[in-house]
Amino acid sequence: MPDILHRVGIAAEPMRVFHALTTVEGIRHWWNETIQGDASEGAAFQFGSNRLEVVQADPSLVTWRYSGPAKAWEPTEITFRLEWRDVQTIVLFKQGGCSEPVEFMHHCSTKWATFLLSLKDYVEKGEGRPEPSRDMKITIDG
Amino acid sequence: MPDILHRVGIAAEPMRVFHALTTVEGIRHWWNETIQGDASEGAAFQFGSNRLEVVQADPSLVTWRYSGPAKAWEPTEITFRLEWRDVQTIVLFKQGGCSEPVEFMHHCSTKWATFLLSLKDYVEKGEGRPEPSRDMKITIDG
Hints:
7-stranded antiparallel β-sheet; globular; 3 helices; alpha+beta; homodimer
């Protein structure tokens, strides 16, 4: 069962990263501009028809569970571990539970890297690159 | 045994991508400026003390084997599958054979995404972002 793993270091205190991960306003600035809902623990948020439940929102660990409708992503958990190290917040990212290493998973892995760099830019500089209009394109199609 | 998977689509014919993957001059423009050696099939190239053997260099599949000295990467194979689809060359990347999902693997996964986007920029626009001086920084340290 393959996982998508990533790491970025953000030159800001963990609580600023935590805020960007646990508020809809924050998530809109680095992942998807159309997010609706509530990103605090126990709540859920949506973009398009996709729905994510916030399983955990601790300052050192944020966990989302994807609850549909894309079958290729279900069931999957997305976790962000936050750890302050001297001058930066290290973010360890994992999307687990993908059933097969299909081509879509290759795509998601590269796309997550761009969104984590977008999270870094948003927290450090105030400007991220969320989809659908400002995300970094990795193919002709998106 | 976790793998690092990525996908990019490059708006250029496969032979241009193949050239960027199988010549030292090409690799210097998107991965590492200090690469020395020969990147054709059966040969090997180096950067710093790291050595990669070119196991296969077919127009649809390029395979490198890392042969040291970093233990965290050994034994590992890096493959690039190239497939032309209408308007772009789809590159499916895999670094397999990492023994454990350690933090270094999270780092390598994100860093590979930036180098594949660098490969895309180099082939499409003539300018990549190779390390050590022009790579996209994902942490304070590199």
